[in-house]
Amino acid sequence: MFIEPGTRHTKDRGTGWIEVISGSMFSGKTEELIRRLNRARIANLNVEIFKPGIDVRYDEEDIVSHNKNSIRSTPVNMAEEILLYSGSCDVVGIDEAQFFDDALVDVVNKLADAGKRVILAGLDMDSNGVPFGPMPHLMAVAEYVTKVHAICVNCGEIAHYSFRKSASESQILLGEHDVYEARCRSCYLEGQKIQKNE
Ligand SMILES: Nc1ncnc2c1ncn2[C@@H]1O[C@H](COP(=O)(O)OP(=O)(O)O)[C@@H](O)[C@H]1O
Ligand SMILES: Cc1cn([C@H]2C[C@H](O)[C@@H](COP(=O)(O)O)O2)c(=O)[nH]c1=O
Ligand SMILES: [Zn+2]
Fold first, then answer.
1. Which residues line ligand 1 (CB under 6 A)?
2. CA dist 41 → 59, 62, 91 (Å)
3. Does the keyword NADP apply (predicted)?
C-alpha cells in the first residue's frame, strides 16, 4: 500500500514530486488514483484532476474505474492545457496518461518543480507488449512508481498484459471486457500464438 510521503518537499524547499501508478488493464490503476486523490481532499488540499479528451468510455468528464468508482475531472486535448488549469492547486491527478504525447513529461516536471504533487495513472504497455506513449519517460522522472497487477482471466495468476481479443493494427482502441482481457505472461503468449495461426 502506498503511503503518502508527507509535505516535507513543499514546506521546506518549495518543490513537489511525481507519482506514477502503472500496470495492465483491470489492475486497479484508476481505483488507486481515486484513493490517493480522495485522501488528499480529506487533508484539505486543493485537487485538480485531468484525463485525455479521447477517453469517453464511461463518461465525458468523470474518471470511472471498472468497478464504478468515479471522480470528476477536466478532459483536455493537449498536455499543456493542464498547466493553464492547475495554477492554484496543491495536487494534480491525471488518468490514462498513456494517451498523451511526450509533452506531458515536461508539463508534470514543471508542476512538480512549482511545488505540486502530481499523481499519474496509465498503461505501461499496449496490447502488443510495447511501452505506451510517454509512460516509460514518466516512470523514469517520477520519484515514486507503483506497479499494480490484475488477475489473469485464464488461469488466476498475476496478470501484467492487456490481451486484445481480436487482432487489430492500431495502438489506440478504446474498450473494456468486450475487447481486452488481463492475462499472465504464459496465457498472453498462448493467445498471441493462436491469433497468429488463425
Ligand atoms: N481480471 C481482473 N483482475 C483484477 N480486477 C479486475 C479484473 N477484471 C475486472 N476487475 C475489476 O477491476 C477493478 C479495477 O478497476 P480499475 O481501477 O478501473 O483498473 P484499471 O484502471 O487498472 O484498468 C478491480 O477492483 C476489479 O473489480
Ligand atoms: C491495451 C490497450 C488499451 N487501450 C485502451 C483501452 C482502454 O480504453 C484504455 C485503458 O483503460 P484502463 O483504465 O487501463 O482499463 O486504453 C488501447 O487503446 N490500446 C491498447 O493497446
Ligand atoms: Zn494466465
1. 23, 25-31, 65-67, 150-151, 153, 182
2. 22, 17, 9
3. no
